[in-house]
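Friendly challenge for the regulars: who can give me the structure tokens for this chain first? No prize, just bragging rights.
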Amino acid sequence: MDKILVINPNSTEAVTRGIDEACAPLRMPGGPAIDCVTLKAGPPGIETQQHVDGVVSPLLSLVRKNEKKYSAFVIACYSDPGLHSLREATRKPVLGISECGILTALTLGQKFGVIAILKQSIPRHLRYVAALGVSARLAGELPVGLRVVELSDEKKTFRRMVEVGKALRDAHGADVVVMGCAGMARYRKPLQDAVGIPVVEPTQAAVAMAIGRVRLNWAGN
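First reply, four minutes later:
Bragging rights claimed.
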């Protein structure tokens, strides 16, 4: 059976568990199977450009070590660390959750908003949106003001996500919201119910694309 490897580039196991739970609806008879792993060499959260740059080498090592066992790889961090380096390192499909989440959002609405974890993450994300050529479709990006390790406080995190989601909808004109951190995965459905517009969980978007790539044998990156 084909298998997809979803890699959490930070070392917080609770984030990996949330990612694994988010992948549950995408597991189906006949596969492909979906495995979720933690990059133990990563920091507790990917919160700076230095964090992004620092996990590229261990990600490369992990993908190369597992290339023969898996049919596709998903990098479950909203900064898509090492995405292009990893695509050079393997002929298997490599998908980044930010790229996939944004592209999925473009099919669900005219203007997408992004919920970031920290204010300092936003300039890094905006550079990426510009590189993808979709800045005109971005309604805005706002932070919840919580670090990755704080996202396990469910009541506090969800309250802030609802506040930010409604602000993106009402003040910025977003008609679809992307959750800008894999650590938010468990909150997608209740957040969508609370804000009343589509909410994209980017790891789900990336894994869904990976399944299509594997099943249709689209190998190119």
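The chain is about 45% helix and 15% strand. The CA atoms of residues 177 and 199 lie 5 Å apart. Your move, everyone else.
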